[in-house]
Specification:
The complex is a heterodimer of chains A (334) and B (320). Chain A has 334 residues and is mostly beta strands. Chain A has a domain of 80 residues. Helix content of chain A is 0%, strand content 51%. Chain A is built from no helices and 30 strands. In chain A, 53% of the residues are buried. In chain B, 29% of the residues lie in helices and 28% in strands. Chain B contains 10 helices and 14 strands. The relative contact order of chain B is 0.14. The chains are: A mainly beta (334), B alpha/beta (320). Chain A: It holds the Pfam family ANAPC4_WD40.
Chain lengths: 334, 320
């Protein structure tokens, strides 16, 4: 059992009042950007914070960042981009439809879903649209190149927006929610409605991977920097699948870290080391070192303040987090 | 859970008056804010409400159960709405005229994230007094919507004679004797009759239907969709009843649209109350029997081509 005994880093956390449900966090160099359920983006740097109305009278449903831009999708049907200087502008606009799936590629390309349509705009502003069989739930750019993975009902679609070729279909029965691409581009993994993950080995054989046993849905996953581990939420511990072999995790048991009597809601691997930040539905956050499973307490449990977003800065020196009740904070490692 | 957001599902065949009812709910001065999930924008002219477009995407669950379907778009929309908690007091889901209410209702039982934050309040069906009889003959969706309803707004009564009105209400009763039926013109009805009905709350099943334990008298029959009710003038044996109800809903689940029951177990001071949608059952001991109150047991099923004889014999065999 954790928390009670874990050495504490709570003194190194600078709390922040975000004021509304934090839906996503990104780092714009030294500035943490918090996308909020009331439509605002809160920019925080060196103890100062500044609120930007990115989606006036609306809500931020999804957020993504490439380290330069903080891109948000809202229930006002807009994709907006906010910079660390506090400037914000509309990138794309639809008529009323919610933007709740979004991905950003290094260099300024981005993609978003509007029902069954996925719209991708490259760094030169060229826009392409693809219709998938049912509403696009998750979007992820491949680690290299301009290629997009889209999750939907009964599978996923891999699409090169700027290539005429027919998109590739990855089929598996059921409703696929979020999607992620392994850092070496060999695997695509989705979370599913049925409390399981599904994966496809793209190289060499298009094999299926089933990862089940979760008591609830996985809505957060994070790859270790070396690409050998995939950490996931959805259980009363972080479930970490081994991906070091070319078969993926099949036939191997996952690691379970940070077992507590609360469900893990967010996971975020440190960008350089095998340390995982684990956020729980009861508001607790632990840092867990994979080598020896040692734990550090970042935030104790706080009632009605479940963790909804976490992000490390590029250097791995700071961890920003946000909660369902609008509390937030930034941990600076000693 | 008191802080779960109530969700009202509004169904009704094309042109029956769903949008009229919706606009009536939204324009009345009630001091409440609603999030409204609609299929088509345009007809709702309310600026200060949160209006969301739905895709009516019905997904099968991979659990080997053919009738286990959920609304994927609803799961996604509710997930998004919860990021704006506090901005609205209740949610109204309007379905298209052709929609089957079952996947909507099942979403609230099958999806943990949805059931943790929202509760299905009631299925409200708007029916056109003039055209319902015809639709019940040619549109299976219309029949589903009547069979599924907790509240039925029998609208446009000004367009039919008193005799025709009796006839159409009798047809409704033949399919669903347990829904509360309101006769209206222009959907004029107090909002309290439509919203916050708690029709799916186990502890309200007895409250809503004071006559529930009374034997009903229904003389009209629909050849395809019917309700079957069976009562035992006493207690049932849980060792027999539990496997029976579980097996019945598993085997007959695709045909059973709704079921409800209040059952007395020996040496159990509380009633066992259950309700279900297709194969999904929700039950618990709830509400003590009053001192001196007669312990009786009753189950009702609304569905298609139900084997009335087998259901009756099956339940009667569970008597303690």
């Amino acid at each position: 059992m954790s928390t009670g005994t874990a050495p504490s880093l709570t003194q190194n956390v600078a709390p922040l009042a975000a004021g509304a449900h934090v839906t996503g966090i990104g780092w714009l160099k030294g500035t943490a950007a918090f996308g909020l359920g009331d439509g605002g983006v809160l920019l925080a740097k060196d103890g100062e914070s500044h609120r930007v109305e990115a989606h006036p009278d609306a809500g931020v449903l999804v957020a993504a960042s490439d380290g330069e831009r903080f891109v948000t999708g809202g229930d006002d049907g807009r994709v907006a981009v906010t910079g660390s200087d506090g400037s914000t502008k509309t990138l794309a606009e639809t008529k009323g439809a919610w933007i709740d799936s979004l991905a950003v590629n290094a260099g300024g390309a981005f993609a978003y879903g509007v029902g069954k349509r996925v719209i991708a705009r490259d760094d030169k502003g060229r826009e392409k649209t693809l219709e998938v069989p049912s509403a696009a739930r998750g979007l992820a750019f491949a680690p290299k190149g301009y290629r997009l993975a889209i999750s939907h009902y009964n599978g996923a679609t891999l699409w090169f927006p700027n290539v005429e070729a027919k998109p590739e279909s990855l089929e598996w029965k059921g409703s696929h929610l979020d999607i992620t691409w392994s850092p070496d581009a060999r695997f695509v993994v989705t979370s599913m409605q049925e409390n399981a993950l599904h994966g496809w080995r793209l190289i060499p054989d298009k094999g299926h991977m089933r990862m089940s046993g979760y008591p609830s849905k996985t809505r957060s996953f994070s790859w270790s920097s070396d690409g050998k581990w995939l950490a996931t939420s959805g259980a009363e511990a972080a479930i970490i699948w081994p991906f070091e072999s070319k078969e993926g995790p099949m036939g191997k048991a996952p690691r379970e870290c940070g077992v507590r009597p609360a469900k893990v809601s967010r996971v975020a691997f440190h960008p350089n080391t095998l340390v995982l930040a684990v956020g729980y539905e009861d508001g607790c956050i632990l840092l867990i070192r994979l080598n020896d499973a040692s734990e550090l307490l970042v935030r104790p449990a706080v009632k009605d303040s479940g963790i909804t977003a976490m992000a490390w800065d590029k250097g791995g020196k700071r961890l920003a987090f946000g909660c369902e009740d609008g509390q937030a904070g930034i941990l600076t490692l000693p | 859970m008191t802080d779960k957001i109530p969700v009202t599902v509004l169904t009704g065949y094309l042109g029956a008056g769903k949008t009229t009812l919706l606009n009536r709910i939204l324009t009345e001065q009630h001091g409440k804010k609603y999030a409204v999930i609609v299929n088509e924008f345009g007809e709702i002219g309310i600026d200060n409400e949160l209006v969301v477009g739905a895709d009516e995407e019905v997904f099968e669950m991979n659990n080997g159960c053919i009738c286990c379907t959920v609304r994927g778009d609803l799961i996604r929309i509710l997930d998004g709405l919860m990021k704006r908690k506090g901005k609205f007091d209740a949610i109204i889901v309007e379905t298209t005229g052709l929609a089957d209410p079952a996947p909507v209702a099942q979403t609230f039982f099958m999806d943990q994230d949805v059931s943790d934050t929202a509760r299905l309040d009631a299925v409200v069906t708007v029916a056109d007094a003039k055209w319902l009889s015809d639709r019940l003959k040619d549109a299976p969706e219309a029949k589903n919507q009547i069979a599924f309803a907790d509240v039925i707004i029998l609208n446009k009564i000004d367009l039919v004679s008193a005799g025709e009105l009796e006839e159409v209400e009798a047809r409704i009763r033949a399919i669903n004797p347990y829904a509360k039926v309101h006769r209206t013109q222009n959907c004029a009805i107090p909002i309290s009759e439509v919203l916050d009905r708690k029709a799916f709350d186990l502890d309200r099943i007895i409250e809503i239907e004071p006559d529930f334990l009374e034997e009903g008298h229904h003389h009209h029959h629909d050849e395809e969709m019917q309700s079957v009710s069976v009562a035992i003038d006493g207690e049932v044996d849980p060792e027999k009843f539990m496997p029976w109800i579980s097996n019945l809903t598993q085997v007959e689940g695709p045909n059973i649209l709704r079921c409800k029951g209040i059952v007395a177990f020996p040496n159990e001071p509380k009633r066992f109350v259950f309700q279900g949608v297709h194969m999904i059952l929700d039950g618990d001991v709830q509400g003590e029997w009053k001192p001196g109150e007669k312990h009786t047991s009753k189950v009702v099923f609304i569905g298609r081509d139900l084997n009335e004889k087998a259901i009756k014999e099956g339940f009667l065999a569970c008597a303690a």
